[in-house]
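Model it.
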Amino acid sequence: MRVGADSRKTTNRRFVILALSPALLFLAVLIGYPLVTVLTDAFQDAHLVNPGVGGFVGLDNFHKVVSDPHFFPAVSNTLVWTIGSVIGEFVVGLSAALLLNRKMRGQGLFRVATFIPWLVPIVVAGMTWEWMLNPDFGIINSLLTSTGLVDSPINFLGDKEWAMSTVIFVNVWRSFPYYTISFLAAMQAIPDELFEAAALDGANAWRRFWSVTMPQLRSVSLIIVFIHLIWTAVNFDFIWVMTQGGPNYATMTLPILIYRYSLQQFDVGAASALSTIMFLGTSLIFVVYYRYRRRLSDEIVG
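Modeled.
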């Protein structure tokens, strides 16, 4: 019996390996190889259009990146862009989920309308908002001036005082439905008995929200917040479509700086070094998420 059990276990293990081999090969080719190449090029004198340049340079690429006068402003902009976007998405997404969780006429229509921004491709959304915010013919400035809210059109994307907050606003507009979907699904899984018991204890709507709803949303909140911290930090296309890092580097983030190193200056070594720094930063975010996730799991089990 023991021999037969070992044989079946070996057969099952071989089948699992065989079934997973296409996915493992896919990950190795499309993720593993590029990652190893970037980590290797970070310590090499690599150039995109001059293949004759090469050789090990140690930490020179990292020193070049850190010494760049645009590096630390780009770090600051990346933090503002990431934290501002995630906080805005969380607040708006949670508020929309609370409204859509209420029973009302036309509930299905409102839910579909809320999810539309998430369905719009980033490039389309960015170009559309860029047109709407144009100071010369954009509908936003037209409405602001016609209603008397402002005396003259505002150059939302061309003024460094407005540019970062504007791209954050547009990013929140497009991304909050993802939070709404997640929160709404979690809310509908909360047993009605918990709310009824809280109401019998004299808890008002605000108290029921903080004592019943929010604790039930801790798990999903942890997941989507940390996922979006990484997604937003490495996001390139949204800012590039709208401002290309301008005006005057006001919206220059680390992904934009990587693009400039690699495809404008053709300095693959510096681009790889900065990519490695970002990889370490996002890995740290994942470590923090893992620790909080384990703590939350232990509290639930306990």
